[in-house]
Amino acid sequence: RAYVFGEDVKFGGVFRCTSGLADAFGTHRVFNTPLCEQGLVGFGIGLAAMGNRAIAEIQFADYIFPAFDQATAKFRYRSGNAFNCGGLTVRSPYGAVGHGGHYHSQSPEAFFCHVPGLKVVIPRNPSQAKGLLLASIRDPNPVIFFEPKWLYRLSVDEVPEGDYMLPLSNAEVIREGTDITLVAWGAQLAVMQQACAEAEKEGISCELIDLRTLIPWDKELVEASVNKTGKLIVSHEAPVTGGFGAEIAATIAERCFLRLEAPIARVCGLDTPFPLVFEPFYMPTANKVSTA
C-alpha cells in the first residue's frame, strides 16, 4: 500500500535518498512526477484518501502550503470523519546548505505549524530520521517531514537495519544540565552542542533539548526543564519574527512565569531573504548562542 513519488525519485532523487527503491519495488510504486509541487501533493491526497500510504518528495516546501492548508489537513474535519488522507507523508529538504541562496536555504516550518491537523517533524541525524520517518508514514495523520539539507552529506550515524519507530511529539533531552535550557531542532542541534561545550568551559551547565516534532510539540518536557534551570534559549534558522521559537517562548512564559530568572532569548535567522555570500552573518552560529 506504500508508494513513493516526486521529483527525480525514480533514480534516487537530488540527494540520493531513494536510490535503489525503484529496482527493489518496481516503477509502479516508485516513480517520478512533473515539477509541480501542488500537483504531486494533490495526487498524494487522492492516493491517501483511497487507503494507501503515500510518500511524496518535493523540493520547494513553500509552494505546497495552499494544498496542505485547504485540503490535506482539513479533509477529515470537513467530511465529518467520513474521509481522511492520514496516509500522506511529504518529505522535503529544508534549511541552509552552504550555497542554496534565498530560495533553497529557506526554513518554512512555521508556515506549516499554523495548519491545524498537520504534524511537522524534523530529525537531527540519520538514526533519528529513520525512526521518525517510519513513525510519520504509519501515523493516522498527514505529516510533513523536513530533512535538513546540511545533514545529507555531513551527518554520520549508526543506523539500525531493522524496523523501528521513534514516538512523534516526544522531545528528547540529549544533554542534561542545571543552569539553562536550550531548545532547537534539525541541523541546529549540532550548533547548540558546540555552544554547550563552550559554555561548559566557563562553568555553565546547559540542558539541551531536541524538539523533534514541532506540531504537536512536547510542552511538558520543555516546561519541566525550564522549571529546573530558570532560563531558556530557543534557536532556529528561520527568521526570528513569526518563527516557531516565538510560540515556544510564549508558551513557556505562561507556564513558567514565576520560575523564570531572565527573559527568554531567541537566537535565530535574520528578517531578510536568505543571503548567499552573507550566509555566515545570517545563520544562528555557535558564537551567537554562546553570547546569548
UniProtKB/TrEMBL annotation:
Q: Please give the CDD domains that the UniProt record associates with this protein.
A: TPP_PYR_E1-PDHc-beta_like
GO BP of this protein: branched-chain amino acid catabolic process; response to nutrient
- Gene3D superfamilies assigned to the protein according to its UniProt record, in alphabetical order: 3.40.50.920, 3.40.50.970
Catalytic activity reads: N(6)-[(R)-lipoyl]-L-lysyl-[protein] + 3-methyl-2-oxobutanoate + H(+) = N(6)-[(R)-S(8)-2-methylpropanoyldihydrolipoyl]-L-lysyl-[protein] + CO2
> Is Oxidoreductase set as a keyword in this record?
yes
List the SMART domains.
Transket_pyr
Its Gene Ontology molecular function terms?
branched-chain 2-oxo acid dehydrogenase activity
As cofactor, the record names: thiamine diphosphate
Task: Could you list this entry's UniProt keywords, alphabetically sorted.
Answer: Mitochondrion, Oxidoreductase, Transit peptide
Matching Pfam families, A to Z?
Answer: Transket_pyr, Transketolase_C
**Stored InterPro entries:** THDP-binding (IPR029061), Transketo_C/PFOR_II (IPR009014), Transketolase-like_Pyr-bd (IPR005475), Transketolase_C (IPR033248)
Q: Where is the Transketolase-like pyrimidine-binding domain?
A: 1-154
EC number(s) per UniProt? Answer: 1.2.4.4
Q: Name one GO cellular component term.
A: branched-chain alpha-ketoacid dehydrogenase complex
Task: Quote the protein name from its UniProt record.
Answer: 3-methyl-2-oxobutanoate dehydrogenase (2-methylpropanoyl-transferring)
